[in-house]
Fold this sequence. Notes:
5-stranded antiparallel β-sheet; minor pseudopilin epsh fold; alpha+beta; flat
Amino acid sequence: MVICILAIMAAMTIPRLLGQNRRAVQVAADEVADLLTMYAQREMLSPKPVGVWHDAERNWIMLMILEIDPARPDEPANWRLDPHVAPVKLPANIPEANVSARENGEPVDFQLWPIDATPGKQRPSIEISLLADDGTVRRLVLPSHAIAPHQLDNFRDSANVRSPIDLDEAGRHQEDW
């Protein structure tokens, strides 16, 4: 009887624990999506270069700003944490080795240097992939023209992401929106 009760309790507890890991991955992906949205807004509105950086030691993804230290105006500008955007602390089930990024379709190591955007220049498209220990994958794609990223998971393909078209060139300039 005791073994049956323990088996029933285990059957109820294990799926719940697995669900918490997936929820933690989804929450982290949502927070990274918010950070990428702030990256896009800062790039459009700020006169300073902005960047997205992965701190592998702490396993955080952070929004950085390139600025001169007011106490040392003669020294070159340095990347500093954006004080208005909290870093995203990735959960333990997403090890730092399972965080990767692409800039304009090419793999980049954003642990060494931030993926940056300079005002007045074309912003790069960014893709950040988060791979959890259980195989759950979340990809965040921020096209160079978008203000917010698309979130893709194991089951959706990037073919579903919209891309910009020139309506005049496509002969659709007179269509209703």
